[in-house]
Amino acid sequence: MLGSGLPSNVGRAAIVGVGTTPLYRRGTSERTEFQLLLDAARAACGAAGIRTRDIDGFSTFADDGTDPGRLASALGVTTLTWSTMQWGFGGGGAGAAVVNAAMAVSAGLAQNVLVFRAIHQGRMGRFGHGGRKAARRTVTGYDYLYGAGVAPHGVLGPVHTYALRASAYLHAKPTHAQLLEDFALTCNDQAQRNPSAVRHGKSLSSEAYRSSRYIAEPLRLYDCGQETDGAVALVVCPLPRAATLAERPAVVAGWAQHGPRGSALAVENRPPEIGEGITGLAATLEAQTGVKPSSVDVIQVYDHFTSAAVTALDELGVLDVDEAGNPTLPRGIALNTSGGHLAEGYVHGLTLVAEAARQVLGQSPNQVVGCTTSLYVGPASTPFTGLVLLSA
Amino acid sequence: MKPHPLSGAALPVPQPSDDGLDAEHYRARRRGELALQRCDRCDTWQWPPEWVCRRCGSAAVSWQVVPTVGRIKAWTRVWNPPRPDLRDSVPYLIVAVVIDGAGITLVGNVPGDQEQQVAIGQAVSGVYRTVRPNDHEPYAVIDWVPSSATTTES
Fold first, then answer.
1. pLDDT tens digits, residue range A157-177?
2. Does the annotation mark A346 as catalytic?
3. Does A162 participate in catalysis according to the annotation?
4. Is A213 touching B (CB cutoff 8 A)?
5. pLDDT digit string (tens) for A267-287?
6. Angle, to 10 degrees, between the axis of helix A33-48 and the axis of helix A68-75?
7. Residue A156 pLDDT > 70, yes or no?
8. CB distance from A215 to chain B under 8 Å?
């Protein structure tokens, strides 16, 4: 196990069980959102070897709409002692939800915290279409993504915001355009070894990628993540008990969550000096744990868009260079091993955290042999994003 | 001139906030002017608006009119209709423009041929377009015209 640089009231916790529901194409699941959540919770508890009634804490993020009282009752929770929602900023909170759980159990305030997220697009409104925000009649104020400065001009969903940022990124680094394709093909290839992935059994060739229709230039269909219904739950327990529940618990070994000054404003006004928010996270991780992102075994990077994932890998400092001097994806690190958002499915980042944990637990369908360090990296360009390092 | 494809698109109507924070910005826009906040103490421009200067914290921020001139720093052309009712409105251009002098970024559209080529770094100047929704008061938006664009329109 790594010598953890985390303070002791955080760094004595581990993920011991992961539960994911099947991932359905958006809006098609006949299970309701709450049913999906219960399914995932039961699966996570089963994997952890605990009973649902033993859960005593909840930790979620991204304005999850679950009623915690209803959830506790449905799970038969004996006593709830912890209930937190990471505040603000969508998928950037997936890692933080794990750390909030880790803090609770490390401090002795809870014993079995359920980290979860459930999405049924029938209820949430279709993400790719901006859901309710795209359909509202008036807009006031300057929300970081869809405020009065942008929505009236047709910025109605994440793809528009990220397409704008991708155009600037590729203008500054034209040799990185190939990395978007490489990343898309990598995720699809990984999905071929994950029977639960939406793209399992579906090949993606370079020709198919390049000829796919534009959604918003420069982003094509295959640059954009899947839209799925599903739920993910994880059980976080304190060490040393975690080691009695899982052979190789995924210890929360490092963490960084940052919103640099200027990042929370309307995203088009991010100051250039803060980049897309990932550089600072890598620096914090290294200062905290001595671990450079380039030295981990496996990375799950938030890939709602290829450009966001590539930008994040770039700012992490893990891109390689080939003989001709062109940038390449990292050669010694496995990426998005369950297929990522691009090819497995999308539950706001928690499928990526789940896979990051499974790699250490030794339970991934696409297992990296001998994986001991596993990094989850949140979305580039959001105001307050983070990463979590898990280790054996 | 061909109407902009987003003119009849029932996009969210921008409204001033109830607390008056951006009232001056909207008043200026109705006059056909671009008003932005600038700190009286440290001269920093800021957008979106706030009651205080984000740089120095001073509450003495006031509004100044600036020329609607800038450069494209990012663009996208939307092909996939973001809502079913926008099927006839695609493709449409969106640009992020850094305003000369103030250095802040505004987002807007480009008039004319939506399949025209635009480029990062290209100089643009603003023209006002009035949007007339069926169910709302008309309101003005600034479109951005590339300086090298021709002005012949049918």
1. 999 999 999 999 999 999 999
2. yes
3. no
4. yes
5. 899 999 999 999 999 999 999
6. 50
7. yes
8. yes
